[in-house]
Write a structure and sequence with these properties.
Elements: E1 10-11, E2 20-23, E3 26-30, H1 35-46, E4 65-69, E5 84-88, H2 89-95, H3 100-108, H4 112-131, E6 143-146, H5 163-175, E7 182-184, E8 190-192, H6 194-202, E9 207-212, E10 216-219
Length: about 220
């Protein structure tokens, strides 16, 4: 898929902004740089200024702004610009794991009882989706790759005891699939989802869900 990008973008130190940059419609990002940090700055650059909440429309101090996943991470939402918007802390907190449409419907209710009933319905709906191994993101974003075709920098330390790894393990044991796809660049280099890949390797899982960004390239 194609990730939304601005026409111009530079990220790095005040002297050399070459840790990540957009050129000819592609994002080039150094392998030592945090993809999530870059995507956060890309989102602020793309989505109507740095201090306007996408949900309530209020102007907020930049230091108090957050980035929200339109499709929640708990239902497969990736950390890419297509799925991120600037949001004030209140809206981000209130939205929890709702989609944009679900949150707007929740906001339309005039009483707390109505909102609670709606949330209970949503929880049952999302649990049903998990039992059916479904994501709440566009189907054309996702494909599958054999684990042996994915390129990554292997870390020396054992990550099997970390909270992220244990969370992946717990979810997989409960539902028999991964909570969200990993993210690859156009050359199949891993840019988000390291613990998922290591868990799959540890448990001899041959294929995993992926989102491949055809206009993003990891560079040395």
């Amino acid at each position: 898929m194609i990730m939304d990008l601005p026409n111009e973008f530079y990220y790095g130190t005040t002297i050399q902004k070459n840790d990540a940059y957009v050129i000819d419609g592609e994002l080039k990002i150094r392998r030592t740089v945090s993809f999530r940090n870059v995507v956060k700055e890309l989102t602020f650059n793309l989505k109507g200024g740095k201090n306007i909440c996408a949900y309530c429309g209020k102007s907020i101090e930049y230091s108090k702004m957050t980035i929200d996943h339109v499709y929640p991470q708990t239902m497969g939402g990736p950390t890419i610009t297509n799925n991120l918007v600037p949001a004030c802390r209140k809206c981000n907190s209130d939205k929890t794991d709702m989609t944009f449409e679900e949150y707007m419907e929740w906001c339309s209710f005039s009483t707390e009882d109505e909102q609670k009933k709606f949330l209970n319905l949503l929880r049952r709906k999302k649990e049903g989706m998990r039992r059916r191994k479904e994501y709440q993101i566009p189907e054309d974003w996702i494909s599958k790759k054999r684990i042996t075709t994915i390129l990554l920098d292997v870390k020396l330390e054992d990550c099997s005891q970390t909270k992220k790894y244990r969370k992946i393990e717990s979810f997989f044991n409960e539902y028999q699939y991964f909570q969200k796809p990993i993210v690859l660049d156009k050359n199949r280099f891993l840019i988000d989802g390291y613990n998922t890949v290591i868990f799959a390797k540890d448990h001899h899982i041959l294929e995993i869900p992926i989102i491949q960004l055809d206009n993003v390239e990891v560079i040395l």
